[in-house]
Write a structure and sequence with these properties.
Layout lengths: L36 E2 L8 E5 L5 E7 L4 E4 L14 E4 L8 E10 L17 E5 L26 E6 L14 E7 L2 H7 L10 E5 L15 E4 L2 E8 L10 E5 L4 H8 L2
Antiparallel strand pairs: 1-9, 2-3, 2-5, 3-4, 4-7, 5-6, 6-7, 8-9, 8-11, 9-10, 10-13, 11-12, 12-13
Length: 264
């Protein structure tokens, strides 16, 4: 029998599948994008690696301004201890790039209230940096959608990260990306109705036949389409499983909250 693996892409070793309360979290796996290819950071300069107290990669995230990064709420379980976290940005190698310390972490206020056994709503955390991040070709912000801005079914998206590839021969250190497509919300909800349902604050992307997806260690990372950050890697059943596309937190559902907290 398959176990239900949810994708809260945390990586204690590196995102897309979680077990029980934490989607895409599997402590026994490494983490890399499934079905993707290595990508240069200049192609996704908004991508960052969130680091834990010991400096190891935990999750992905996206630069949204010189002082702010957006990641998943489940990636920051100790949000009152932001000083223990840092990010690395500006390199395809998760262990390189410039390190930036965090000033504080702001988890979405409805995250805990709406967290279920499997799925989780409002899976967002804002990371404020202690110092401004200088921008160049390897470090720059990604645009955000407007509040409630819609994305068409079938829209082509790119998800990136240092998560599980399911292939031991592929490097765990180099950034990878894969193209997926936005999945019809109603059909996706029917698929996941036994696991907490897909809420309006979520968006599904992937392939019904499986094979391409985010995975453990990719959590918190970007789902981008049309030059905008439309989703944050959040949860799902397994990694790239047939019939179970990935479920992402929908950025357009919290655009006003981001503006209130960050000022832009």
């Amino acid at each position: 029998m398959k176990s239900f693996v949810m994708c809260l892409a945390i990586a204690v070793v590196s995102v897309s599948c979680a077990v029980s309360e934490q989607p895409w979290w599997n402590p026994n796996s490494i983490s890399r994008i499934v079905g993707g290819v290595e990508v240069d950071i200049e192609d996704v300069p908004y991508q960052i690696s969130l680091r834990g107290w010991d400096g190891s990669h935990i999750c992905g995230g996206s630069i949204i301004s010189s002082r702010w990064v957006l990641t998943a709420g489940h990636c920051t379980p100790w949000s009152d201890q932001g000083y223990k976290y840092s990010i690395r940005a500006g390199s395809s190698n998760k262990n390189n790039g410039k390190e930036f310390k965090l000033k504080r972490i702001i988890k979405h206020p409805w995250y805990e209230e709406h967290r279920g056994l499997y799925s989780v709503e409002y899976d967002f955390s804002l990371l404020e940096l202690k110092e401004e991040m200088p921008f160049d070709s390897t470090r720059s912000p990604i645009d955000l959608p407007a509040q409630y801005e819609q994305v068409n079914n079938g829209a082509r998206c790119r998800v990136s990260g240092w998560g599980d590839t399911k292939t031991w021969s592929e490097s765990t250190a180099i950034l990878r990306a894969v193209y997926v497509h936005v999945i019809d919300q109603y059909r996706c909800n029917r698929t996941y109705e036994g696991f907490g349902n897909v809420r309006p604050s979520m968006i599904c992307a992937g392939y019904w036949e499986g094979g391409k997806d985010a995975c453990q260690g990719d959590s918190g990372g970007p789902l981008a389409s049309g030059g905008k950050l439309i989703g944050v890697v959040s949860w799902g059943y397994g990694c790239a499983e047939e019939g179970f596309p990935g479920v992402y937190s929908r950025v357009a559902s919290v655009r006003d909250w981001i503006r209130e907290e960050t000022g832009f």
